[in-house]
Amino acid sequence: MSSDSDPAAFIRANTAVAAPPLLPEIRLHLAGEVTPLWQATEASLARSGLPPPFWAFAWAGGQALARYLLDHRDTVAGKAVLDFGAGSGVVAIAAALAGAARVAAAEIDPFAAAAIAANAALNGVSVAVVAADPLAGPVPAAAVVAAADVCYEQPMAGRVEAWLRRCAAAGRLVLLADPGRAYAPRDGLVECARYLVPTSRELEDREARDTAVWRVLPGAATPASARATPRRPRAGRGRGSCRGA
Ligand SMILES: C[S@@+](CC[C@H](N)C(=O)[O-])C[C@H]1O[C@@H](n2cnc3c(N)ncnc32)[C@H](O)[C@@H]1O
């Protein structure tokens, strides 16, 4: 059976169930080692134009934002939540475990969509997978919009930032977690928390990543898409609460 025809079978065959370092209460189908999974997906990726297997890792941003939601349940309890660029679904699952009324996970990668469904089932929670790119669409109805580790390349990061600002301007609580990726926004943010997330040298070229959870405000000084050179976010910009209405 090829990975193209059955992503769920491919995920089961190429991952092991484990808890990410910062999240002992969440179990996910994760790649034990980076290289074999990358190689296993290469043929399929070349044929189908699919992205790399981001869904097989709980990225530093995802772990930090999931930890934040589990430790600050009132942020999402009783509310509708949308996890943008959900990957494994780690943030969506944390939101559901923290008592969110409804959780949706937006993903453009069909393998990630299958991984989110499998991981939600593993944790006994309900997550609706939205297999679409929401960035060009209307502001979602969800009260809380979450995005973790989605600022790693241009022009995607510029589109993501513009959309997150639009969501914030429309009154959504917008939370973004980022471990210092090149294209993360640096202004118009309120720092909610910061975590040192263990990672692997194979994946991140270092053993831990200092990762911030930000509330995104409606306005920023300079959109990421207009910057000539990527810059690291500065801590502590902006004022305000990390809780929504
Ligand atoms: C580095 S992964 C982060 C996954 C997860 N949030 C985490 O922190 O573990 C980024 C994810 O964003 C997804 N993505 C990229 N562009 C997207 C878009 N326009 N709409 C929905 N998902 C997108 C990718 O498929 C990928 O799974």
Which H/E pattern describes the elements? HEEHHEHEHEEHEEHE
Query: How are the strands of the biggest sheet laid out side by side?
Result: 5-4-3-6-7-9-8
Major β-sheet annotation: 7 strands, mixed
Please compute the radius of gyration using only Cα atoms.
17 Å
Give the N-terminus to C-terminus distance in angstroms.
49 Å
**Fraction in beta strands:** 15-25%
Task: Just name the CATH architecture of one domain.
Answer: 3-Layer(aba) Sandwich
Level-1 CATH class name of one domain: Alpha Beta
**Based on DSSP secondary structure assignment, what is the total number of beta strands?**
9
Q: Report low-confidence residues grouped into runs of 5 or more.
A: 228-239
Query: Could you name the CATH topology of one domain?
Result: Rossmann fold
Number of helices: 7
Ligand set: S-adenosylmethionine
Please tell me about this protein's structure.
By secondary structure, this protein is an alpha/beta fold. The chain has a domain at 60-226: Vaccinia Virus protein VP39 (Rossmann fold, 3-Layer(aba) Sandwich), CATH 3.40.50.150. It is 30% helix and 20% strand. It has 7 helices and 9 strands, in the order αββααβαβαββαββαβ. It has helices at 7-14, 34-48, 60-71, 90-97, 110-122, 156-169, 201-204, and strands spanning 16-18, 28-30, 80-84, 102-106, 128-130, 144-148, 173-178, 189-198, 208-216. The strands form 2 sheets. A 7-stranded mixed sheet has the order 5-4-3-6-7-9-8, with helices on both faces. It has a two-stranded antiparallel ribbon with strand order 1-2. Helix 3 packs parallel to helix 4 (90-97). The structure holds S-adenosylmethionine (SAM). S-adenosylmethionine binds next to helix 3 and helix 4.
